[in-house]
Amino acid sequence: MESFVGALGLYGLGTLALIWPKRLELAAHYVSMGLASIASLVVLCQSLLTLGGMGGASVWQLGRYSLAVDGWAAAFLLIIGLSGTAVSIYGMGYGRGYLGARIRQLAGLWNLFLGSMVMVVLAGDAFTFILAWEVMALVSFLLVNHESEKKQVVHAAYQYMVMTHLGTAAILVAFYLLGSGAESFAFADLAHSQLPPVLRHIAFGCAFLGFALKSGLMPLHVWLPNAHPAAPSHVSALMSGVMLKVAVYGFGRFVFEFIGADVFAYGLIVMVVGLVSAFLGVLYASMEKDMKRILAYSSVENMGIIFAAFGCGMLLVAMDKPYLSLAAFTAVLVHSFAHSLMKCLLFMSAGAVMHATGTRNVELLGGLMKKMPWTAAFTLVGSMSLASLPFTAGLVGEWLTLQGMMTLAFESGTPELRLLVIFAFILLGLTGALALGCFVRLYGVTFLGRRRSNLVLKAHEMPFTMLLGMGMEALVILAAGIMPAPLVNAMRQLLVDSPLAIPAGNFMGLWWNGGQSEAVFSPWLILIAALWLLAILALTISGKKVIVRQDVTWNCGTEPTRRQQYTATGFSKPLRRAFDFILKPRRERVFLQREHAYFGRKLHYNLLIPDQFTDRLYRPVQHIMIKAADTLRIVQQGSVRLYIGYTMIAMVIVLIWGGM
Fold first, then answer.
1. In the predicted model, is pLDDT for residue 519 greater than 60?
2. What element of type H or E holds 72?
3. Same structural domain, 92 and 213
4. Domain range enclosing 644
5. Are 95 and 144 in contact (CB under 8 A)?
6. Count of H-run helices and E-run strands, the chain
7. pLDDT tens digits, residue range 562-614?
8. Does residue 538 belong to any structural domain of this protein?
9. Number of folded domains that form the chain
10. Residue 592: in which H helix or E strand, if any?
11. Residue of 225, 331, 549, 599 with fewest CB within 10 Å of its CB?
């Protein structure tokens, strides 16, 4: 625990960049981001020791408040430490772009943001948890609003502020209900809270609402596709890759310790909401043209997969088969870890592309692989992992999720549940296929082909610190994908030792008793693949030299131009037509003046994919609230005496109520 407290102290020192003199702002930036990197590295090392059994669970008491670390907390501290280290190193180079634009505030708040997330995970009582949670929310709001001179940034920041505080209010209600049943807000006492069934259901509903909102699950996701693109790219990486996982940590703490996972309806709700979020998230991601909005919607998809796995495990626990839930709950932790790596890497890549070209619109890019080879290589690793291709970390978590679903299908006691699980399989498979198409589209249109605008001409490779941060994440993604057993076994053991106390067991040949999970990756398959590669390499080296003549193909007498390439909009058109009933696209065609006597007229085409939840749910609520505010304006007469009268009436009512 002392190491974690020391890391919090380093984050605190990094926050002092806020008060450095302006003439030393660049030095303040480097010192602050360096301290953030060191502190995150300390968190990473200590969390690895705790997971390995060398650190052990511990509690640090400070009066009535406490910090505590156990296996569940260590898994998420590992995520914060690893991604925090890599993105902080990346931020040293990327942050220089804000020189003269409040760079000290950006660096100082960065440390406070990382420190607040560590505090949330270490909190040992409800007060510390809510305090750290609120600091995390306020600091992330300030970071999103960093470029406050832009109108769309301010709109996104305040939308995020409102939504995140609605979630905080729901979590507060859940803690209040649990505390009323335990007569204490220490986590150790909340674990023994005795609530009537009705209050228990309300507490679960509030907790799920609060953490689902912070996780960006649909239909509570509306803040996410706006806030993540509005923030600086390294902040977007931390929000998507790490902050969303803190919400998974909080929900797991509530389920495993406070409320329990033994109610069938709880697991069903969580799984269904997760599946819908996963499918719709990747569908909307496949339609976007802004790189960061694509990644934001992809976060909605992956958080949906994590919660679907969570719900699957809860259903198996509720069916009194906890040892069979091990694959699903392991998938929650493994995919949380993998998604943190993937999303941090790709948001850093998006920042590099924007830094080099000045745009995030993929329709204006193309051919960047020649200009930015290292960035292209790292982005390819992240895209492959998000598409769940073999030998990447993304496949491991999704494969374990499918294993959990398969277990649930075999153990389903009713035809209705079995039908639901079959539907879940279909939806997960469709989600995976859409994710593959989405990231083929993103990578191909951005890095391959010919340039689509002159913005690509000024592109250049990133400085060393930015490449180092991306390279660290890419390396771990490949390592976890090629050798998943250490990661899977560590997370499995964590769950066996958790308050849920899932017994290790065996089902359908999937061994969870400490051995290697051959169903994730078989060593024989790796050996066969290696032999094939060696054979191909030997044939290539020993084969006869082949003379290859390169020439352009016959082009029908017309020189092809870069405008004749597939666009991102054209690539996604089949999906747009297939899911037109969900997306409801708005098309606008405007014919301009004649361009040429033989080639007809110029055509301006505009396509908008509105978010249906925003249009059909949030806008009507917004209109009702505005009308209500206009109605209540009648009491606002501008008279101080009248306002004093309102205050006296309110005080009398409160006194009468208190007396009763």
1. no
2. helix 71-94
3. yes
4. 612-659
5. no
6. 27, 6
7. 777 778 788 888 888 888 888 888 776 665 555 555 555 666 677 788 888 88
8. no
9. 2
10. strand 586-594
11. 549
